[in-house]
Amino acid sequence: MKVVFSERCLEYYEPWHPEGPDRVREVHSFLKGEGYVFIEATPASYEDLSRVHTVEYIERIRKGNFWDSDSPPYENIYEYARLSAGGAILAAKVNGFSLMRPPGHHAGRSGRALGGSSLGFCYFNNIAIAVRSLGKKTLILDIDGHHGNGTQDIFLGDERVGYISLHRSPHYPGTGLRSEANCLNFPLPRTAGDKVYLKTLEKALSQIDVEDLEVVAVSAGFDAHEKDPLASLGLSSQCYREIGRKIGSLGLPTFATLEGGYNPRDLRRNVYEFLRGLEEKL
After folding, report:
1. 155-159 long-range CB contacts below 8 Å, 24 or more apart?
2. CB atoms within 10 A of CB 231
3. 123 neighbors 61 (Cβ within 8 angstroms)
């Protein structure tokens, strides 16, 4: 599986912020040592962004005319966010993995979504932009420890896109407590662990008609890991290989984009196990 990356995504940071460049830098170094092939990310176009977000919201990000407690208006954040969205588009084209930041699944059509109190480290919804760019019948599977309230906000009621999220509850952003239309939500306790998580994933995937799909898009967050400081569900690194295998077993073209995961040293192993699991079955 090819990995989409650009060193430019390492350029912005705040020392106090958990969504920092070290998390991506560690994964890049590890995957490079394992022989993965990297391709350079290119920015999403304005048209790409506007298929998902309102022009008013895009302009606020472009001009830095916003304030958010979790998602600061870093200098040039519009360009970094546009590059991350473009990385997701490229990953969709090559059935690869986008190793880019900032993440995206909390960003709704107009920014904050479904009652969220912040943008949750996100600016543009990378996975949604990539899915809309493909224009195919797609299952979005969100394995981040947080509910992707922005992704649900964008695709709720869309007959061409199904959304499944397994996430910790009660927890930020406080959404995803029940399934609604094409959005299937599976809230889990923080003590879930591998066995409960994998059983729930099997249940979720059993509710999908694979014959009616063309693509699987994975919001690949790794903050459900047992050592993650923000959204742990008690998962082991080996569990991510099993998650990858189950997704790959669907037998559909698959791509993934990085979401959460805030313990850099564990994140590199978790990403690797997930990719290996996918590759074993794809």
Report:
1. 155/128, 155/131, 155/182, 155/183, 156/180, 156/181, 156/182, 156/183, 157/181, 157/182, 158/182
2. 22
3. yes
Q: What is the largest CA-CA distance in the chain?
A: 47
Distance of CA 281 to the CA centre of its chain: 21
Alpha carbon distance 107, 103 (integer Å): 9
Domains of the chain: 3-281 (3.40.800.20)
Return the percent helix, strand and coil in the chain, to nearest 5. 40, 15, 45
Contact 126, 164 (CB under 8 A): no
Annotated active-site residue in 28, 53, 105, 106: 106
44: DSSP letter: P
Note the pLDDT tens digit of each residue in 143-175.
999 999 999 999 999 999 999 999 999 999 999
Show the tokens assigned to 224: 């459900």
| Nearest residue to 210 (alpha-carbon basis) of 171, 243, 254 | 254
Q: Write out pLDDT tens, residues 231-282.
A: 999 999 999 999 999 999 999 999 999 999 999 999 999 999 999 999 997 6
Q: Is 105 a catalytic residue?
A: no
Give the H/E segment covering residue 151: helix 149-155
